[in-house]
Design goal:
Elements lengths: L4 E5 L3 H12 L3 E6 L11 E4 L1 H9 L12 E9 L6 E15 H9 L6 E4 L5 E4 L5 E5 L2 E5 L1 E4 L6 H6 L6 E13 L7 H9 E7 L2 E9 L6 E9 L16 H15 L2 H9 L4 E11 L4 E2 L2 E3 L5 E2 L7 H18 L3 H32 L9 H12 L8 H5 L1
Parallel strand pairs: 1-2, 1-10, 2-6, 4-12, 10-17
Antiparallel strand pairs: 3-5, 4-5, 7-8, 8-9, 11-14, 11-15, 12-13, 13-14, 15-18, 16-17
Helix pairs in contact: 1-3, 1-8, 6-7, 8-9
The protein binds flavin-adenine dinucleotide (FAD).
Length: 400
């Protein structure tokens, strides 16, 4: 693929990973990122499967020195009925590699090699030349490429060209994400001890919370990352228009959820923790009918968004990049590579959207009677929910 010109729209997780993939396959890559600043301030927790992390390090996508906070176990908790203490429901084998979103982005960004990374200029649209090449249009003019990769997130302008009919389907509930310094756990040493060896799912009627440690910005430091899924406050409408500007209102609501449903020490952490970051997202999903249509290709959230219960958006973006590198190396032409990419990655996007919906139904929309469950029930519930699907978060369950 020497001499192949690839333009990438978006320079976040998917964009940087695609730039590395293209460069490693011998192409000349140019990234066009709208934001002018560093992207690490989006930093939250991201979980990836350990084998993928190893593959990315071995393949030169990530440095071995990128901080991670691996754990091998998942603990299911709920609030004991009529009490304020936690009750452990089950432990499952679930090896995961939690990362800090910002550190992951920075690690990818530092490995894009010879690729040019232009920032601070949005791509207005993409199009085709008469000769079948791809065009990227910015305020500076038009650039022609052999392949344009749309890595421009869930509102992708690239997707508008090849799949304009696709619209996100709202799940009808929200997720509050946050990161909290470990000083918030000062009075709760048992909580901290659990988190050092496991990631936690805290089930309640009508939703759940997920808690895990991630690396902080300072070497060796840790943050507590969490995501709490629940229906919106009665006063808010659940639509894609719920915005980060409503976070202060929602912060009060999420504290109410914690007080009402969480064991006391977990409620205290959420309520009193001084957040280093916090955001509200309506949960939604979609998948494109084809992840590539030569000379265009979609990667990461531009191609599909799954409900976050699968913890697979960044994972899929990284796997998209590995797939592009492989198909470019193994195919006789760029168009053939993109057709193979479309075949493999469209199916994976659809699979993850289906899995996310099943998990959403079981973990938010139609929750079981958690306090009545024990280890065997959680295992049976997990198997029934997966319904034969693979998920690295349920590795121990699926393999048995
Ligand atoms: C609560 C929650 C928990 C999650 N947990 C996990 C997890 O544990 N594991 C996991 O794998 N994933 C997880 N995800 C998903 C993951 O965060 C996303 O899938 C991933 O970050 C998407 O990366 P991306 O590069 O595709 O898109 P984005 O990060 O949205 O990047 C798109 C980029 O394109 C740029 N852009 C947009 N339009 C233009 C334009 N016109 N011109 C130029 N640039 C443009 C934007 O500025 C941005 O930088 C989670 C998501 C949520 C909400």
């Amino acid at each position: 693929m020497t001499g192949l010109r690839i333009g990438v729209v978006g320079g976040s997780i998917a964009g940087c990973a695609m730039a590395i993939a293209g460069t490693r396959a011998g192409a000349e890559v140019t990234v066009h990122e709208r934001s002018s600043g560093e992207l690490q301030d989006r930093g939250f927790g991201i979980v990836i499967p350990p084998p993928l992390h190893q593959e990315l390090v071995a393949g030169g996508y990530l440095g071995a020195d990128m901080p991670t906070a691996p754990v091998a176990t998942r603990i299911w908790l709920t609030r004991a009925p009529g009490r304020h203490s936690a009750r452990e429901l089950a432990r499952q084998s679930s090896p995961v590699t939690p990362c800090n979103w910002g550190l992951l982005w920075r690690a990818l960004r530092s490995n894009i090699g010879e690729s040019a990374y232009h920032r601070g200029l949005p791509v207005g649209s993409v199009g085709r030349t008469h000769s079948g090449h791809a065009l990227i249009r910015t305020a500076d003019g038009e650039q022609e490429y052999d392949i344009v990769v749309g890595a421009d997130g869930h509102r992708s302008v690239t997707r508008e060209l090849i799949a304009p009919e696709v619209r996100p389907a709202p799940a009808g509930y929200l997720v509050w994400r946050g990161t909290i310094p470990l000083s918030a756990l000062r009075d709760h040493p048992k909580v901290l001890e659990l988190l050092k060896t496991a990631w936690i799912t805290l089930g309640f009627a009508g939703g759940h919370g997920v808690f895990y440690l991630i690396p902080g910005a300072d070497p060796g430091s840790r943050l507590l990352a969490y995501a709490i899924y629940a229906p919106p406050p009665v006063s808010a409408s659940v639509s894609a228009s719920v915005s980060a500007s409503k976070v202060p209102v929602s912060a009060a609501y999420v504290r109410n959820i914690a007080d009402e449903h969480f064991p006391a020490e977990w409620a205290d952490v959420v309520a009193r923790g001084e957040h280093t970051s916090q955001a509200l997202h309506p949960v939604a999903d979609f998948v494109v009918p084809r992840a590539a249509e030569p000379p265009f290709l979609l990667a990461g959230d531009a191609a599909s968004v799954t409900r976050p219960h699968t913890a697979s958006g960044a994972v899929k973006a990284l796997q998209d990049a590995l797939c592009l590198e492989r198909t470019l190396r193994e195919s006789p032409s760029a168009a053939a590579a993109l057709r193979r990419y479309a075949h493999e990655r469209t199916a994976e996007g659809a699979r993850l959207v289906g899995l996310g919906r099943r998990l959403g139904r079981a973990l938010v929309e139609n929750t079981p009677d958690w306090p009545a469950m024990g280890p065997a029930d959680v295992d049976a519930w997990s198997r029934a929910t997966l319904n034969g699907a693979r998920s690295y978060l349920y590795g121990g369950v699926h393999q048995r």
